[in-house]
Known about the structure:
- This protein has helices at residues 2-18, 28-40, 48-58, 62-74, and strands spanning 44-45, 78-80, 86-88.
- It starts with a helix and ends in a 6-residue tail after the last strand.
- By secondary structure, the chain is mainly alpha-helical.
- The chain is 57% helix and 9% strand.
- The longest helix has 17 residues, at 2-18.
Amino acid sequence: MKKFSAxxxxxxxxxxxxxxxxxxxxxxxxxxxxxxxxxxxxxxDFDGITxxxxxxxxxxxxxxxxxxxxxxxxxxxxxxxxxxxxxxTVGACA
Length: 94
């Protein structure tokens, strides 16, 4: 029985490693918060200053903000600017 319990515990840990951590998953609420924060900073995140402002407005760490930005671009809620940065295309920024 102890061997089975140890095997089950290792299997559960392995499976949990495959699931995205809650802090890095992105949902519609995150995208809405991002769009709102982008509108507050002028609809464009193009330098470290606006990135920090968005991070402060949302309370996200850089890894979460990067993931939300990637998802916003993937869902065409933001576009990458040719000279760098990201411009929101939804809400007040549309």
